From TrEMBL:
The keyword Repeat applies. The lineage of its organism: Eukaryota, Sar, Alveolata, Dinophyceae, Peridiniales. This is Uncharacterized protein. ANK repeats lie at residues 12-44, 45-77. The keyword Repeat applies. InterPro entries: Ankyrin_rpt, Ankyrin_rpt-contain_sf. Pfam families: Ank_2 (PF12796).
Length: 102
């Protein structure tokens, strides 16, 4: 993975890591993190890759991001944390995973 491939690429400032998290691709997330992808990059709406994975209910993606050091206390432009996002979408397994993190 080239460094250029790790930077924001689309109109919404999503990085490759955002897109992998949105799709729930834990293997790609792990590879991107290993290559130095910016873990706390913000999309236009203020969401990090952890927010994207939480929004979609991707448990394995959330786990890989947490294991990689993703901050659980980030707040989006609308004042939502990854936990709030997961709860609002009814993703209990993700919410439980996030609740267990400091």
């Amino acid at each position: 993975v080239s460094r250029r491939g790790l930077e924001p690429e689309d109109y919404a400032h999503n990085t490759a890591l955002h897109l992998a998290a949105l799709q729930g691709n834990a293997g790609t997330i792990a590879a991107l993190l290993e290559a130095g992808a910016p873990l706390e990059a913000r999309a236009a709406w203020g969401g990090t890759p952890l927010c994207e994975a939480s929004l979609q209910g991707h448990v394995s993606a959330v786990q890989v991001l947490l294991d990689g050091g993703a901050a659980v206390d980030v707040v989006t432009e609308v004042g939502a944390t990854p936990l709030v996002i997961a709860e609002r979408r009814g993703h209990r397994a993700v919410a439980d995973l996030l609740r267990g993190r400091p």
